[in-house]
Design goal:
Layout: E1 3-7, E2 13-17, E3 33-36, E4 51-54, H1 57-69
Bound molecules: zinc ion (ZN).
């Protein structure tokens, strides 16, 4: 699950995106990617998909390489 709550240094809590490949926090939105693999067939209203978040290009490439091997 790429979205989590994190306790920050000042004691407050907020939502953060966690890279599904390396497990680090996606601190820079400019480098982050959101990837999803919809099921085969037509999209229907109300369909939901799991999303994967990666923090940078190297993690995205690892994810896509793994997805290709597993048939996505
Ligand atoms: Zn990463």
């Amino acid at each position: 699950m790429p979205i989590k709550l994190m306790v920050f240094e000042n004691g407050s809590t907020g939502m953060v995106a966690i890279c599904d490949v390396c497990g680090k926090r996606c601190a820079d939105a400019d480098d982050a990617n959101v990837v999803w693999f919809p099921p085969d067939g037509d999209d229907r209203t109300g369909d939901t998909f799991d999303v994967t978040i990666t923090c940078k290009d190297t993690c995205s490439r690892k994810l896509m390489s793994h997805a290709e091997k597993s048939g996505h």
